[in-house]
Amino acid sequence: MQDERITNPAQTFRPATDDRSRPAALPRLRRRLLGTIAAIAAMLSGGAVMAAPASAVESAEASTTVTVASDATSTPLDAVGTLLVERLQLADTVAQAKWIKGTPVSDPAREKVVIDAAVAQASRDGVDPDLVRRVMTDQISASKVVQRGLLTHWAHNPSEAPTAAPDLTTVRTRLDEIDAALVDALGAAQPTAADPTCRHLVDHERDREYPGLDSLHRKAVHTAWSSFCVPLTNKP
């Protein structure tokens, strides 16, 4: 990771806050994912979701396990939602690198690798592969929402654009870890995906995630959840 200072997108989009923020209560997952979830806990306690600076990524590398807290009020969607938001947080850093290097937002080869790996894991672990494919496709689309929004803003406000590119190797490693944990979380949440009240439950979960997010990231969260529920035509 380079030591040069990079532009903080917090200067680009100011988060909208309200009084609905509450601590996120999460169910316990298998401790598959390497890295740290301290950044998520801080974020859901009221911090704005913006680009992960070099120090945040480096601190993630220092830890070897993830501990996901749980209590009586948690739901399976809480764990999924937490991972979705962390994944979107890293989209800011990806956008910084693509701005400096001039690379396109879409990367079909990389996207296929990500989706295929998640579906293969789902098949091994007894998780609905169709659910995983839908959700992972949405995560890629949500990441593009953030990246395109930031690139457009920087194009119109060059003084706020990043001036140094972060190391995407570390970021992509972290994304792979999040994706592995997300498959586990979807395994716990898959009964909810087929529940008749699924869309209502997803709306409630999005409302839990929105406090502390700016309008761009709220739009991306909406995209990230768009295909979680089993389509009505697929229900028995």
Topology:
Elements: H1 38-44, H2 54-62, H3 76-101, H4 108-125, H5 129-156, H6 168-193, H7 198-209, H8 215-224
Helix pairs in contact: 3-5, 3-6, 3-7, 4-5, 4-6, 5-8
List keywords for this structure.
Chorismate Mutase Domain, subunit A; 58% helix
Total individual domains? 1
Compute the number of strand runs: 0
Number of helices: 8
- Backbone CA Rg: 17 Å
Low-confidence stretches: 1-72
Biggest sheet features: none
Let me know the average pLDDT.
77
What report would you give on this structure?
Helix content is 58%, strand content 0%. Helix 5 runs antiparallel to helix 8. It has one domain: Chorismate mutase (Chorismate Mutase Domain, subunit A), CATH 1.20.59.10. It starts with 37 loop residues before the first helix and ends in a 12-residue tail after the last helix. It has 8 helices and no strands. By secondary structure, it is mostly helical.
Could you write a compact summary of the structure shown?
This protein is an all-alpha fold and 236 residues long. It has helices spanning 38-44, 54-62, 76-101, 108-125, 129-156, 168-193, 198-209, 215-224.
